Amino acid sequence: MTQHTEGRTGAGTADLPGFDAELQFCLAGRRFAGRRHMVLLRKIAELGTLTAAARAAGMSYKAAWDAVEAMNNLAPRPLVESAAGGRHGGGSRITAHGLRQLRLFERVEVMHRRYLNKLHADLQALDEMEDFRQLMERLEMKSSARNQFHGTVLAIASGPVNAEVTLDIGGGNRLVAMITQGSVERLGLSPGNAAYALVKATSILLTDADDGLRLSTRNRLCGEVVWCREGAVNGEVTLDLGGGKTLTSILTNESIGHLELREGMRACAVFKASSVILATR
């Protein structure tokens, strides 16, 4: 649950800190869906297309796509599935698992609001909430890494200085990270433990799925191109890895043209184990 304060004025007193909260779902201690995400899921269930759902939820199509992509990457099973037709054709449907999460959220939200009503009354006597809010803001950490996955540690191969950590991120996909032994100990990593893998989109190279190249990079994930757009200099390409997982790469327009990347074709993402950042709660 994410919380933030808001100013509140009492009669004849200085502004007293109030307290408000937004209900969010957490997976293994990490936030992955809030009310805005649930509204989007509800609209997808009602309207059957991501375009219509994004419009009804007051979101851009890209923001809605990114939200669904993030939820599917972090959830144990996909919440939304795309029908035939690709990103701009066909439709989208909420899965049975997604519908269960939506119904649970709606029930919990009612109880959450009842709790907040009581909390507001109790907090009137407190005068240190602003200091608390500032502390929480400083402790909150956000990542700029485009690709974030939740997974399970499968194996750790330890060396004198570094360790190679293999992570199962679901959908039959595995990531390998190269980190120091000190990081393994500090993160408390061991087989069976949960961990997060973060990979910057700029660290990922794309190749033709059938190029037959043998590379020294430890990570090679293949899938269907579901998003390919060029910008002024660089472009963004997203691969559907299967199992509800996606991976996004930022590469030059020249590279996109050289590889003849387009939506619907298969391609492979390759990146070094040293480009994978691991995190735990």
TrEMBL record:
Under the heading Gene3D superfamilies, the entry gives:
2.40.50.100, Winged helix-like DNA-binding domain superfamily/Winged helix DNA-binding domain
GO biological process terms, semicolon-separated: molybdate ion transport
Pfam families given in the database record: HTH_1, TOBE
Annotated region Required for dimer formation and molybdate binding: the residues are 143-151
> Which positions fall inside the Mop domain?
142-208, 214-280
Instruction: List the InterPro entries hit by this protein, alphabetically.
Output: LysR_HTH_N, Mo/tungstate-bd_C_term_dom, ModE, Molybdate_resp_trans_reg, Mop_domain, Transp-assoc_OB_typ1, WH-like_DNA-bd_sf, WH_DNA-bd_sf
Keyword annotations of the record: Molybdenum, Repeat, Transport
> Can you name this protein?
Molybdate transport system regulatory protein
